[in-house]
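Appendix B, Record 12. Input sequence as logged:
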Amino acid sequence: MARPAESPAPESTSHRRAPDFFIVGHTKSGTTALWNMVRRHPRVHMPRKEPWFFAQEVHPPAAPRPEGTGRTPKNLDEYLSLFEGATPEQRIGEASCLYLWSHTAAQGIADVQPDARIIAVLREPASFLRSLHLQFVQVYIEPETNLRKAIELEPERRQGRHLPSNPYWPGATLYSEHVHYVEQLRRYHSLFGEEQVLVLAYEDFRRDNEATVRKVWRFLDLDDSPRVVVRDANPTVRVRSRRLYALMHTLAAGEGAVPRAVQAAARTIAPRRLTRESAMAIRDRVFYGSPPPPDEELTLELRHRFKGEVVALSEYLGRDFVTLWGYDRID
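Logged structural output:
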């Protein structure tokens, strides 16, 4: 995989402040829920999630992005303008779950804010990839609905074949590239030092949301006594029908005369008091279902494949992820 272009150089930004901390990922590892809870501290200011500015692999800003994620800022000044609502006493934070996967984000963050605190969330690899694949199918990145087949496509995708048509995140469906935990963490440790990087386990967060959020607040030198508002977010789901979902995706994009006509008709017949949240809840009931049970045979294969990475991670961080994730029971 070719190395991406260099991160954007700092520009003149007048009096604008850069973020003090970053939640860098991984995707489908509780980052949305963590962002939702951490930002409710009165001394924290975090705007919309996923600016993606420092992940140069997902540029240009004009590339299509999933619903609700906005667009990538065009330059540093535009990026810093996202945080203008912060008061002087607040910590500014940013959350983009691609930053841990990205080869450019760590250096880009260090260039703009060398004193930044970094928060990474890691998840057991087999569970992570299953959830990631379901998410990619849901947001129209991955056309192959079978995880085993999607993983088997990796060699051809590295050669530029069978790539998804959506251009905003090239390389996303090379699933094994997401499970380079030690390499990913080293990029941040080499630039920020161990005291500036907090590594969390997704399983700890799921087990005790409140304790994890308070740990993050303490890491940011904040009072950890405010009430923690527990919020679930971005659950793993299954798309009920690829064909129906594709039609919905086309209509939502509003491309062409027919989608625009359908959108106009929908606005005419929809109840006046139907909120965006209500509309999305209806959509979710129609298009999404509970995820299928894991393929146990594939799960075991993936756990064998990634056991070396889990052992290396345990040695690197000095924490027993082998036992935490059940890899001690794998021969």
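The first helix runs from residue 31 to 38.
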